[in-house]
């Protein structure tokens, strides 16, 4: 038995016989043709190109939803095949150097691949896989070989391949394939994205799976842990068969509950929203029953790259997310860089206390060009759905005014240029610094909503570095100081008539759901996969009782005591849940 660790691409367990799909680039050998055969080679090249396009178009036409990732990826492949540089260089090499079509094409392909691999941006680098996949197809067509195809698979198997093209993954949708494992790929590779949207278990980026696998044998895939097991023992197969059952049950429960409203037994409705970092997560959030996005951490657009995202890139990314949610709101938090989230391209000075340094809104108010590019993009995207804008790390009213002034400047600029935007767009703030919680009554007059960021609020209120494992035992969401701060923010918000949300990790922990309901939160935003469990608890709760219970909890002196009382209550009320 061999266990390989890769990148978890799509959750779920698959157990079965492996199927090796040969996706390495076919080898070409350097060879030339005589002068009178040159035009024949050019024609053969053009035929294989046309055939490749036809094949991809046929697969694309089989995809019913033109808005789907699949459809769009296949369109990218078509566009790559239509790239004139690829043709010009290939035909030039055939005509000038008398190379055979496959050698000429291979040479151009390899040099393009090298250029792609030198790109630092992981997203663009990923596109080298798209190029390799179309290259493979053209070369196979040139050789007149039929592509080893998923469409011909008739048995339930687990596909093991160096890489899979979107055309392959599209075919998986209508095949008995149980899951797949590949050498290359990352979480943002198209292969991983499509696996998630199809909903089959997949592990990518295993580096050596094709080498380790050989040509046959049983395989287990754990797409959540990112693990592939080759030749598992009987005991392991048994263990994973149980895991697979539990996973299917989880999915069934999730699907059932995703469509139900989040309403307590006595009729109080809450909105459960998703926290996302990447636009690709939007589809999963919708499927999990999210009522929109409560926190979109846009700083992830800046990470792992050398350059800064342009206004256009911000805009396109936001538009993609907003369009997925239709009439449900998407709360775009302006960049929260600094602290534990570093962006190499910004050349930020090393700080003694990065969590308390030049981060988030402070950074944005200093780096106005970067901030304004994002504000313009958010406003422009606001006509495509329902966007709410949210500032992180607001510490007081003056700082909020400065940020709002910048929004006004950007609005005036857009108006001058006759670029439309949603004039009614809500603007709110994260309440995650104790000073903001303490003066939440003053801040509530200036904004349309609050969202409590408990991750930072706890860090600052209790003076516990959230990334330091030595003090993590003091990181207590049930500390009376934290509960009082939350109560204060909720009351201030409601007195001013604005909704109060929570988007820190505390909001997604089912153990706290009953207390948060009792404290009067209107919205909870969390990792999409937590939504069903939190929803199940809220649907079994009585808001009136929760309110009384939460008021009683606030009378106790320590987090330990509060925790014990809460545990007892939760176990009494929800005996079927595990906390
Ligand atoms: C928080 O601080 O609670 C929060 C949600 O924001 P982040 O975790 O991105 O700092
Ligand atoms: Mg925060």
List the helices and strands and how they pair.
Layout: E1 2-5, E2 7-10, E3 13-21, H1 38-61, H2 69-81, H3 84-97, H4 101-118, H5 122-143, E4 157-161, H6 166-173, E5 179-182, H7 190-198, E6 202-204, H8 209-213, E7 218-222, E8 227-230, H9 234-258, E9 271-276, H10 281-287, E10 293-297, H11 311-325, E11 329-333, H12 360-366, H13 368-381, E12 386-391, H14 397-416, E13 426-431, H15 434-438, H16 440-444, E14 449-452, H17 454-462, H18 480-495, E15 500-502, H19 510-518, E16 523-526, H20 531-539, H21 543-553, H22 559-573
Phosphoenolpyruvate binds next to strand 10 and helix 17.
Describe it for me?
The chain has 579 residues and is α/β, with parallel strands linked by helices. The protein contains 22 helices and 16 strands. The strands form two sheets. It has an eight-stranded mixed β-sheet. It has an eight-stranded parallel barrel with strand order 9-10-11-12-13-14-15-16, surrounded by five helices. Helix 6 links the parallel strand 4 and strand 5. Helix 1 packs antiparallel against helix 2 and helix 3 crosses helix 4. The structure holds phosphoenolpyruvate and magnesium ion (MG). Phosphoenolpyruvate binds next to strand 10 and helix 17.
